[in-house]
Write a structure and sequence with these properties.
Length: 846
DNA sequence: GGCAACCTGATTTTT
DNA sequence: TCAGGTTGCC
């Protein structure tokens, strides 16, 4: 890390930066700070239609504002209107606004909405996530930190790989260290802004565990630095460090951003909190003078004492929706806001514009069980709406079938698929759901989960790009060294790494010296060829002379050109195409899809660099790839669901051990956080809410019995209409239930009494009496997997009678679709109308 | 160095 | 259940 303070010359780029708007330079126009601005348009369209609290939140002016926004209370509306209001009243230039959101999708939406309110004058605002904003700052100021401005961003998988190697080399696994445990601990420390040196100062050197951890932490830090790489947590931490170590750099941003707005404030961690504090600090008079001398614009921003006052801060949040404590989020950031920022104004938004009163009453009832919270009750003027629907399945598949049946019923009633979502606690729960969705031919989409960019072949292709953008990145180089196979094995890899270490050169440079390693000619040739390929690709990115003169990227190859050249010349694509492994066909298609994505990127971001592309990819969030336009049902975790809303919401897997998750039981505050998670899920629903669980669930190949989630009992009886309550599900079967569960303790017994919703309320057990008996149990699991089944070209047409293993007999009314996607519309005698994917449905023609 | 067969151990949520 | 690691053979 460089100790030299940054020069103001370098800082000038901040002003001349092409993506800084014209408005930025006009900052020396007459002051339009809070004191000066007139509110000539206070009853403008920007506050019309807002309730009194929302209006107050839009119009309040002062150093600090906390908007406590209950779920569905219109906080995005308030935030966007507040930003628009600041700009329209000429109290701020767009460039003086920094708005932080949780996901890129939320940022994009906020930008769009502000733009819709203001038109063109909205450009130049920074609306982004914490991570994106920090990357932007860090790339600009990389030099101060001794980093390359093309630094790589390591995701958790990358971090894990590095730690795995370190742990192996240090033999730390014998002491019980795993990559995951070390990663969690390092992340936690970084979120607290504790770097290696700070940790070393307080470490107990008598504790061998701690000594070993310190060694791991130190080596990890060293390697990232050598590779010019930062992990997710560094992005925030290093920015805070940058501001603290280089006050003049900090001053540039403090001066620039006059209004900071932070969404989802309850989920900020200590590092993010510190970043906000740094950005809202006043700029001291001495620095103001110095900035002024260097031509950095300060006029109009100083107060009577010659200081530039701290930026005004607006935070929006809801402590009841704090669900990221496991990631270091500190609820105190919001609960102690008023103490942190004395004189802060607090506005409470309780009126809900999203859900029916029944849904809100359930949410209120559940969350009121968390003690130690400010009482807050959501209400709506829109009426009770329908009852909540409850269902207890015998297995996860039963539960999934219920979900799909209800989805189909909603669809028939005119609700679009895209207006429905299914939530669950853990990603593993998608399996059973997906099987039933596929079988029933209901279009769905899993949001998040195993992401495109996490696929091995995509990471391989990306590693080529990274190796070109950041030649110091050893991790990327080692990943592609023998991918595709070039005969460079682990022994050779280690030899190169050691050579680099001994000669204090980078891995990439060591590759250039392959001839000195005493390797065979074939291996040496392969290494040199790879190095050549990477060099060539790097050359493609250098702008032509004309471009250089104009200070543009003109003449430089596009990202897609470079990627295509890399995957073709390296043999990555051809190897996949020629492979006899059938899965490689899909992998080749994925790589081609990546090339297509870079083409889109090039088209949508003319002039953007390779590093821009890599940054964008590194920072995509699960929710970002939500495509509103697709007509599919969305499946996602409860965490991903935060901030979204749907006409109909299905909360599945409401069982002890799953929600609350067993892992949370031992954590302080765990069960309360799980309750908030449930609360978040409930409040996503506008009109219809479905709560479901399964009596037994397969885990690790074993079937285990489940108890209903404790949170279900916190919802008042009258609000839920149980199609099949937990009590009903057990009472069905003395012997049967027991056999089903495999293990003794029945559920009704564990529950105690038979009363209330847990008791029997007969209805709708038909379906189960047909198919559910102890003997059929094992068969059921196999049948449902469907993977082995292939009806191929079973010819069906309207009028045919068929038998389905679950639904019994029925008559085909219509056949739609082509080839493998052929769908039979069937009217079952007892189970009603269903749509089935012919190829895999468990059906036979009669 | 590559590959197939076996074994084991893990499973929360994510920018 | 399954992905990832290890072992042993070519």
């Amino acid at each position: 890390m460089s100790d030299a303070p940054p020069t103001l010359e370098g800082d000038m780029t901040l002003i001349l930066d092409p993506d800084d708007p014209a408005g930025w330079r006009e900052a020396d126009a007459p002051a339009r700070t809070a004191a000066g601005g007139g509110h000539e348009s206070s009853d403008s369209h920007l506050v019309a239609g807002l309730n009194p609290q929302q209006k107050e939140a839009v119009e309040y002016r002062g150093p600090a504002l906390l908007i406590v926004a209950g779920a569905g209370s219109g906080k995005t509306r308030v935030l966007t209107h507040r930003i628009a209001h600041l700009i329209e009243t000429r109290e701020a230039w767009p460039s003086q606004i920094l708005a932080i959101t949780f996901t890129n999708k939320a940022a994009a939406e906020m930008r769009e909405r502000v733009q819709a309110l203001l038109g063109d004058s909205a450009s130049g605002m920074w609306i982004s996530t914490f991570h994106s904003a920090c990357v932007r700052i860090l790339r600009r100021e990389a030099e101060s930190l001794g980093l390359s401005s093309t630094f790589t961003i390591y995701d958790s998988a990358d971090t894990r790989t590095v730690l795995k190697r370190i742990i192996k080399e240090l033999d730390a696994d014998t002491m019980g260290f795993t990559p995951a445990s070390a990663q969690a601990k390092i992340s936690k420390l970084k979120n607290e802004l504790t770097d290696v040196e700070a940790y070393a100062r307080n470490a107990n050197t008598n504790d061998p565990q701690e000594v070993m951890f310190l060694a791991i932490f130190r080596e990890y830090t060293r390697r990232l630095r050598a590779a010019s790489a930062l992990d997710f947590d560094d992005l925030i931490g290093e920015t805070v460090y940058l501001f603290r170590a280089f006050p003049k750099v900090a001053a540039l941003y403090q001066r620039r951003f006059r209004h900071l707005l932070v969404d989802e404030y309850q989920d900020t961690n200590h590092a993010q909190y510190s970043l906000i504090r740094e950005l809202t600090l006043p700029v001291a008079r001495e620095i103001v003078d110095e900035l002024d001398e260097h031509g950095v614009l300060v006029r109009g921003l100083t107060d009577a004492s010659g200081q530039i006052p701290g930026a005004s801060l607006t935070v929006v949040g809801d402590s009841d929706q704090s669900i990221y404590a496991f990631r270091g989020a500190d609820i105190r950031n919001i609960s102690e806001f008023e103490r942190d920022f004395p004189g802060a104004k607090v506005v409470l938004l309780e009126q809900n514009y999203r859900s029916t009163q029944n849904i809100l009453s359930a949410a209120n009832a559940v969350i009121s069980n968390n003690f130690d919270r400010k009482d807050k009750k959501l209400w709506t003027a829109d009426g009770d709406g329908e009852q909540i629907t409850g269902y207890t399945g015998y297995t996860a598949h039963d539960e999934a079938q219920f979900v799909v049946d209800e989805i189909e019923a909603l669809r028939r009633a005119g609700v679009d698929y895209r207006e429905m979502a299914v939530f669950y606690r853990t990603n593993a729960q998608t399996r059973a759901l997906e099987e039933i969705f596929v079988r029933s031919a209901v279009p769905y989409r899993v949001v998040g989960g195993t992401k495109f960019y996490e696929r091995a072949e995509i990471k391989d292709a990306m590693a080529y790009l990274i190796a070109v953008a950041n030649p110091l990145d050893e991790l990327a180089l080692r990943r592609i060294l023998n991918t595709p196979k070039r005969g460079i094995g682990p022994a050779t890899e280690t030899a190169i790494a050691q050579f680099a270490e001994q000669n204090d050169i980078s891995f990439r440079q060591a590759m250039r010296s392959a001839g000195e390693l005493g390797l065979g000619p074939k291996v040496t040739g392969a290494i040199t060829a790879l190095a050549d390929l990477l060099d060539e690709a790097a050359l493609m990115l250098v702008p032509s002379q004309a471009g250089l003169d104009a200070g543009t990227n003109e003449g430089a190859a596009k990202v897609s050109d470079v990627l295509l050249a890399l995957v073709e010349k390296s043999g990555l694509l051809t190897t996949l195409r020629n492979s006899r492994d059938p899965q490689d066909e899909t992998r080749a298609e994925n790589v081609e899809e990546l090339v297509a994505q870079t083409r889109d990127f090039d088209r949508e971001n003319p002039g953007a660099s390779l590093v821009d592309f890599l940054t964008q990819v590194s920072l995509v969030a699960a929710a970002d790839d939500l495509d509103d336009a697709s007509g599919t049902v969305s499946l996602m975790t409860l965490h991903t669901a935060k901030g979204l809303e749907y006409h109909a919401v299905f909360l599945t897997g409401l069982e002890e051990g799953l929600l609350p998750h067993q892992m949370s039981a031992s954590e302080p505050g765990g069960p309360a956080e799980e309750r908030r998670l449930f609360y978040v899920g409930i409040t996503r629903a506008r009109k219809r809410l479905y709560l479901s669980l399964a009596m037994s669930r397969a885990q690790f190949g074993e079937v285990s019995v489940a108890l209903p989630s404790r949170y279900l009992q916190e919802i008042p009886d009258g609000l839920i209409d149980w199609k099949q309550s937990p009590g009903m599900a057990t009472s069905r079967g003395g012997t049967q239930g027991r056999a089903l569960n495999g293990r003794g303790a029945g559920y009704g017994g564990a529950r105690g009494s038979d009363g209330g919703v847990w008791g029997t309320r007969g209805r709708d057990l038909e379906r189960f009496s047909v198919t559910k008996n102890a003997g059929a149990k094992t068969e059921w699991a196999n049948r449902v997997t469907g993977a082995v089944r292939d009806n191929g070209d079973l010819a069906l047409e309207a009028g045919d009678r068929i038998r389905h293993t679950d639904f019994g007999e029925g008559r085909v009314t219509q056949v739609t679709g082509e080839g493998t996607k052929k769908i039979a519309h069937v009217n079952f005698d007892t189970a009603g109308a269903k749509k089935l994917l012919i190829k895999i449905a468990p059906i036979e023609k009669l």
